[in-house]
Structures are given as C-alpha cells and as structure tokens.
C-alpha cells in the first residue's frame, strides 16, 4: 500500500544529499545513503538556480567590548557578540534574534520562489529551503558558525589592503560587523577585476563563500569555478566540485572532481586524498556512472582504513557511500553487508542513540523492504523511529520520514487508527517544515490519500 521509499525518489535524494553536504563539515567524508545522506559528516550533492540574498539586518544598539578567555564568543548586554582570538577582538553587531529574522526572510523568499518555479528549478530551491530550515532548527550552532564566518570575512578583507580603496575597505569591514556582507561582496568584486590571476582567484573564492552563506548556491558555484580555473589548488577544486554537484551541473562536477583527484594524488596526504576520491565518487554517482563511483569509494575506503583503522566514523562514512554504489549496481546483498558494518561501527563510536545512527538504520530498513524481508524491515523502521523521536526536535523534517514508515508498521499490525493518526502527523509536519509544494510533501500526501481511500474515507 505505502510507497515507503518515497524519499528515494530521484529528486528527493539529490535534494537531501545536497542539504547534508551543506550542513556539516565535521568529518572529511560524506555518506550518501538512501533517505538523507547518512551521517551529516561532510560534503554535498546537487542543485540549480540562485535566489536573491537575504535582506540586510539592522544592528541592535552598540555593544560593549567584553573579552573572553580563549577565543570564544561572548554575549553582551545588548545582544551583540564579541569574538576574541590571540591577536584581536571583533565585535559583531547583530544578535541571535536578528540572525533568526534574517533566516526567516530568506525562507519566505525561497517559499515564494518555489510557488513559481519550473520543475527543473524545484530541486535547488527545495534544497536551499531545507538548509535554511536546518539552521533554524539548530539556531545556536548556526549563529556561532555565522559569527565565526563574519569574523573570518573581515580578516579576509584585510588581506586585500592596498588593492582596493581604503575608504571602501573600511566601509566593507564595518558593514560585516553588522552582519551585512553586501559591501564586502562589492569590494571583493573590484579586487577580482583589478588584480592578477591569484588575487582574482582569492577574491572570487571569498565572494563564493559569501554567496554560499546567503544560500545563493548557483552564484557560489560560478564563483568557486572561477577561483578553481584561475588557481587550481586543492581547496579551490574541492569547493568548485562541491558546488557544481549541489546545483546539478554534472559536467563541471565531473571535471573538477577529476582535477581534484589529480592534484591530490600528486601532493596531498592520505586524509585529503581519501576525501578527493570520495568527492569524485559522488560526482560519478550523480552522473549514473555507478561502477566508476564504486571504484572511487572503494579507494577512499581502503585508504581510510589503512590510515585511521576501520572502527571510526570516517570509515563508516566511506563504506556507507560504497553501500549506496553497490545498491545502485543492483547488488543488494553486498549493500546490506556494508550497511550492517556501518551500524557496527556506529554503535562502537557515536552510539546507537544518535540521529546519524538512525539514518543508517532507516537505510538498511529500506534495503530489506526492497528485498521483501518485511518483518526485518519493520523492526528497523521501529528502531529508527524510536531513536529519532528522542534524538531530534519534534519539528525536525526527518521525523516526517520516520512517521510515514512507522505508520506502515502500525498498519501492518492492524492498528489502523494509530497508523492513520501518525500518517496525518507526518503530512502535517512535512507541510509545515518543507512546504506544501515540496516534492517530499507531495509524495507523503499521495500515500496519505491512498491510505484514506483504502480505509474507505
């Protein structure tokens, strides 16, 4: 009755993978697994056009200078933040509430754009919308990261001293402390146009980071690409490939991925080389070159195991990608073997109560359902639902997925009223967090309508 694997719809997988890569850069290897990208460990997948940046946020009243002990952010009485480091103190003049309001404005703009988007534009807009929602769900972390990003941008501007006008540079740095990146973007654009190739690459890279922070991913992709073309360093190629992947520019993603591997094999250490193999594997997988992507993921897995050992999150991330590649090639038994290995590592490292663990459980459940091992799948759906119910906030979009599959479990048990109620909640949550026109919400609604029809309502 239920489609169950609605989150494996092609557009949903692309959007989920892109979101995950955007959210975390904690462990240098991404997990590409069924529903969302398993693990939130660090990289990305596709998208398309850009949307305008969020409106500038006015700063609250001037803040006091407060010194932290060890480079931490300190909240002042006026709600602003002071970042202190070894050599300097930077006062960032907008509060967490102002940051939240900025995200609200961007979310509203994306939702408005989504109502008028073509089918080709929807994946990008939905992925950017999910990224905004994810920041709002963990606003404290997102705010601290944004403060650090603003302080880094201010420092980056300082490196262009003498290459742009002093007045313009001072204005840009002042605006950054108020949470406004627009003036900085203009100054960096001037530096890119006036400087030599390396200066232009640095300025383009800095502008790309601004665009990425403002959820203008197509703009970011173009700017990272320019930086990589002008100066094909490891860092520039990593970001150029990543953003091309997010906006679903397959040709650019493959081109930069191949260059990244070439540069890494020539000069990178084992960790960066493993990351390069993994990143290129993602591009190959997205281009439906499944055998080639499997080979890249296998290289990353072997190198990671040799460098870090097998019982660590990095290796788990890598073999999750490898499991997905084997799944794409039709070897479900091999994929199952690898997913079970991931769960073994997760239990020993991050524990069996984390949201990341639940993602892998959900992926294995999907696989077993596909193999028609329904009883085993149902047990795992229950486990994923139980873990997510504790690990995630009530309004987290991933809960809609688990609610939908748990409704199936209840329906199979004959607990029809509970199943119907849970599926209604899944639809309401998807509508609220993702929007009524999001492809995930549409598919849940189709399952919901089918459920009601079968129950005679």
UniProtKB/TrEMBL annotation:
Pfam families, per database record? TPR_10, TPR_12
User: Which chain regions cross the lipid bilayer?
Assistant: 21-43
Report the coiled-coil segments.
Answer: 100-163
What keywords appear on the UniProt entry? Coiled coil, Membrane, Repeat, TPR repeat, Transmembrane, Transmembrane helix
List, alphabetically, the SUPFAM superfamilies matched: TPR-like
Ranges: TPR repeats: 316-349
UniProt KW Ribonucleoprotein keyword: no
What PANTHER family does this protein map onto?
NEPHROCYSTIN-3 (PTHR45641:SF19), TETRATRICOPEPTIDE REPEAT PROTEIN (AFU_ORTHOLOGUE AFUA_6G03870) (PTHR45641)
Recorded protein name is Tetratricopeptide repeat protein
| Annotated organism of origin | Litoreibacter ponti
Q: What is the lineage of its organism?
A: Bacteria, Pseudomonadati, Pseudomonadota, Alphaproteobacteria, Rhodobacterales
